[in-house]
Each structure stands twice: as structure tokens, then as C-alpha cells.
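Milestone 3.1: sequence recovery, worked example.
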């Protein structure tokens, strides 16, 4: 049995580094044509260059800051114009503000909601008619922040991620009739964002790792990317509307 991924096309936001890049590599090694989207073009071009070197696979880099909402439909259009189809959408790019609720400013709240649920929804809407053609898979990034035993300082970040989970579940319900699957993952990975957090909050980061039963942070490609590839494959064709923690056993999703 094959995984059914060869020849498909995936659009991945935030693919210039970290988790997005790891997912891009794992899909490309299975014959998926990847469109790497990010606000820093050089990083996306680096991802594309590595895909071509490692896997000999076609790929395209597109510069786009997802907070520029009017640009999002054009990213999908450019993807389809280049490769003729779209089968997989990975909404990975996001911003994070970590501070007490009382200290949050309107600009920060708006930015979180724009780059989180709003951009995610608009990308799904733009991708919908193309995913509807042959069926497809949507992977959105959530977080276990809302499952923390102490959510101090993480309220806004958790809120934007929980909104994304709600949108994902709704897409699975409304679009399942067209064989469009939508799932969320809640990942822990050695990304630049996590490296920044570890450097700036070392005590909190050390305590955090101790709560992971497997005792380690995941690898962007070998752990997160490989799981996403499986979730997009034919082997997972009956999985939709789920939020799955890919975190070494830390989060309880019940």
C-alpha cells in the first residue's frame, strides 16, 4: 500500500524554518510538491533549495506576511497557477504574545486574532474550491497552552489557538462531504520560537520539559513533520476533526 502523496501539492505557511520547514521536508520526501510561504523570502528559498537538493522535488517559495490578509487569496492562486492543483494546506505561521491579561494592549490582541484564527480561516476559504476538486487535507496548528495547569501569561496565545481548533472542527463538519479532512496538531518541537522561549524563560522551560513523559522536545522533521505526512496520507483517510497532541505524552486532551 502506498501513502497516496506522490504528485500532490502542499501549501505551507511559515515554511522558512522550524516546524513548517520540517513538515515541508517530510512531505517532499514522499513526492509532494511544496509551496513554502513566509514573510522572509530568503528563508523560504532556503527551504526550497534544500528540498531540491535532498529530494529532487519541485518546490516554490512565496513571500507573504499572513497578517496582510488581502494577500492570502493570491498565495493560493499562485500555487494553483504554478502546479495546477492544491491538495494539502498547512496553516503554521503564527505570532505569540505572552503576558498577563491585564497588560495586553489592543494592538497585541488584534494581531493575535489576525495572524491566528482570521488568517487561518481566510486561507481555508481560499483553498476550499481547490481542495473540493479532488478531496484534500487541512492541517492547522493549535497549542496545549489552553491545557496548561497554570495558564498565567498564556491567555491570549491560548485563545487564538483554541479559536483555530474550533474553526478546524467546523471545517471537518461542513466540508467532510467533499472528502476534505481538517485536523489540528498541538506540537512541541525544537523550533526557533522554542529556542527564544528557552533563552528568555530558562527556569520555566526547564520545568516544562520535566512534565513531558518522554523527557525530550520533538524534532521538527523527524517527529512533527513525519506525523503530519502520515496524517495527510491515505493511511489516515478516515481521520478528521481531531486535535492531536504531538508532544511526547504531555497534554491530556480529554
Amino acid at each position: 500500500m502506498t501513502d497516496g502523496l506522490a504528485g500532490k501539492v502542499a501549501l505551507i505557511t511559515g515554511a522558512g524554518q522550524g516546524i513548517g520547514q520540517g513538515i515541508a521536508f517530510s512531505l517532499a520526501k514522499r513526492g509532494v510538491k511544496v509551496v513554502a510561504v513566509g514573510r522572509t523570502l530568503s528563508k523560504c528559498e532556503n527551504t526550497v533549495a534544500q528540498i531540491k537538493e535532498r529530494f529532487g522535488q519541485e518546490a516554490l517559495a512565496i513571500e507573504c506576511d499572513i497578517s496582510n490578509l488581502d494577500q492570502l487569496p493570491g498565495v493560493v492562486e499562485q500555487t494553483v497557477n504554478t502546479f495546477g492543483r492544491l491538495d494539502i494546506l498547512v496553516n503554521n505561521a503564527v505570532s505569540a504574545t505572552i503576558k498577563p491579561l491585564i497588560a495586553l494592549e489592543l494592538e497585541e490582541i488584534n494581531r493575535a486574532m489576525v495572524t491566528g484564527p482570521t488568517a487561518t480561516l481566510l486561507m481555508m476559504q481560499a483553498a476550499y474550491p481547490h481542495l473540493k476538486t479532488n478531496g484534500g487535507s487541512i492541517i492547522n496548528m493549535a497549542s496545549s497552552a489552553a491545557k496548561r495547569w497554570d495558564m498565567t501569561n498564556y491567555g491570549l496565545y491560548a485563545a487564538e489557538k483554541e479559536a483555530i481548533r474550533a474553526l478546524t472542527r467546523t471545517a471537518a463538519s461542513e466540508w467532510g462531504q467533499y472528502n476534505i479532512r481538517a485536523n489540528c496538531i498541538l506540537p512541541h518541537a525544537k523550533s526557533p520560537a522554542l529556542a527564544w522561549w528557552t533563552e528568555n524563560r530558562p527556569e520555566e522551560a526547564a520545568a516544562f520539559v520535566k512534565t513531558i513523559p518522554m523527557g525530550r522536545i520533538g524534532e521538527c522533521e523527524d517527529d512533527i513533520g513525519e506525523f503530519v505526512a502520515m496524517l495527510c496520507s491515505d493511511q489516515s483517510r478516515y481521520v478528521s476533526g481531531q486535535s492531536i497532541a504531538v508532544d511526547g505524552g504531555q497534554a491530556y486532551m480529554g
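The chain has a mean pLDDT of 94. Strands lie at 9-13, 33-38, 59-63, 88-91, 136-141, 180-187, 243-246.
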